[in-house]
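ARCHIVE CARD
Drawer: 12
Card no.: 0347
Subject: one protein chain, sequence and derived structure
Cross-reference: see card 0346
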Amino acid sequence: MIYLRTYGRLNPAYMLTLLMALVMVACHPAGSEKHNKQIFMKEKQLSFSAKNHALDNNDNFSPDDRFLCYDTRGTVLNFDLANCKSIEKIEITSGEETVLWAPESVTGEQAAPGVAAVSYHPFDDKVIFIHGPLLEEVAERGYYGIRNRSGVEVSADGKGSVTKVDMRDGATDRPTIPGAQRGGTHRHEYTRDGNRIGFTYDDFLQQDYDRTIGYMMPHPKAPAGYTHYFAVLVKPKKKGSSKAGEIEKAFGDSWVDAAGKIRAFVGQVRSENGVDFQNDLFVAEIPDSVDITSADSGDAENYPEPPQGIVVRRLTHDGGVSGIVRGSFDGRQIAFLMNDKNGVAQVNTIDVLGDDPARQVTNFESDAAFLRWHPNDEWIFSVVKGNIAATCVRAGKDFGQTVLLTNDQQLRSQLVVSRNGKMLAYNIDVPGATETGEEKAFMQIFVMEVEMEKMNAAIQ
């Protein structure tokens, strides 16, 4: 059976694409998992303007769940974040869009400043995102790059009140200023209590080191003019120098608990044969006794050192871990993607203490992606072949039961869950036209109401 939904205003190009998709569905079964149950929930297209609305799988819902924040990457020239021009929000009830930050910029293969990857604060009306060098800083710092950016907060009321979060200090003739970074922070994530910010980090002064992870927090010793003190959580081994079991790259990270005492991440480690690499799940623990100012910011010849007392633990040893890992709301479980025996990325969970082995939750035929917990910690959402799947993870007979909430040819991505758990939001590319009349698909925001009673009834 074919299910049709109303997405709002449809232009002729979109109608043609929809008809083509229906023909494909008629000729081929929908790309769903046949063994999983299917229910259908109300899906609605929220944004319509001729630009991209990239959620980027971040914390995009406002504290009151009235708005979604996004960036406009890919609207101008290419998808390089250097050419992303604005940070915006959209009201869910009305679809009204508001530009929160759009600095003066230059476009090209080398561009600046570049603003992207936005998240809302958990309870304050502000957002945080990556920000490259302002145009007046380009002569000194160069153009946007992954090793040339920092975090900036902007008020979400549309008035453009700016706060500088982490200082970037690229000096080579002296030690790096304590509490400053020397490259680029990215994908900033607040803890649920708002007191810490996690991120990925790429160093500029020591480029023989790959990406790693870190955290920052407000501190009286933060560099002058900035609110937060920076530190790496993991010092990776230099590229190509690791021994078996040692980490050369850390990424795909997320907070496990509300207070930011545990950050889970994917570690690229040297395999036991001493030649190959594999990706496994790790956690970095920040005990209460840790003083962030005990971190060493390094200098031109020395990579930064984590604060004293950080504990890194490895939770898996079989490789195949991918994506962004996610902590449950109670801070006891970590959900992550790991390949099964057929090489398919499945949703897995593991106790944060590592006392029990990982449990494979799903049995999809195709790779899962964009996994997110429901706030009740009983369900995990993911995207499989463009469709939304909800998998039960509560203990008992229902564990691992999966319900498909959509079953069509649309390619959904960048899934996020509202703070109250009553709504999902995600991106779908929708054909449209630019101001000059050029046909182009734009990344639009769609939302879906979560009907928990239907989900629970479907697995009984």
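Annotation on reverse: The longest helix spans residues 12-27. The helical segments are 12-27, 138-141, 452-458.
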